[in-house]
Amino acid sequence: MQFNTQNPFSCTALDCRILIAGVASLMIAGCASSYVVLLENPDGTTGELIIKGQKGEQVLSKAHQGAPLDGSAPPAPVSKDKLNKDFGEAMAAQPRLPVSYLLYFKKDVLLTKESKTLIPKIVAEAADRQAVDISVIGHTDTVSTAEVNERLSHQRAEKIIELLEDKGIHMHAITLESHSERNLLIPTPDNTYEPRNRRVEVLIR
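and the corresponding structure tokens:
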């Protein structure tokens, strides 16, 4: 990712702005100590950030590297204390990333033992968010007809919603979708039994 600083944002010395575009980074712009810091992505990987400023070009490629926005100095490590001091409020204000769970079915609407254990985790994740939006998406494998699978995927999603509501999640926060045998997790021909396709996805935003 490239970042051009010829037209920087205006801000006060403590005004931190968040920049996320392929790589996670934080910047203070338009200040005497203007600089940008490269952070790791949620999956632990680190991208690359190119700073093109009035005084040069710098490349950040390691997590917690920082460099001036004008490109005047090479990348250097930014300590945890400095990162928290300059960007603590900005990092705390970032929206939480969506989380998804896959729950699998032995048959019809009977959950596997392992998937049953995910219900309390889903409830806890939803309860830990201030404004929660939950999508419950039912799926089937390609066994049986499209009409039967459409009905079955809807029933599976309804079953998960019932379990979540029993644990205290209110219906107004939940939307139901039925994808039937569309959007297979494991592509198969028609009339193929595939346990990994007999599932419900719960997406929490």
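(Above: one complete record from the training split.) The chain has four helices and 13 strands.
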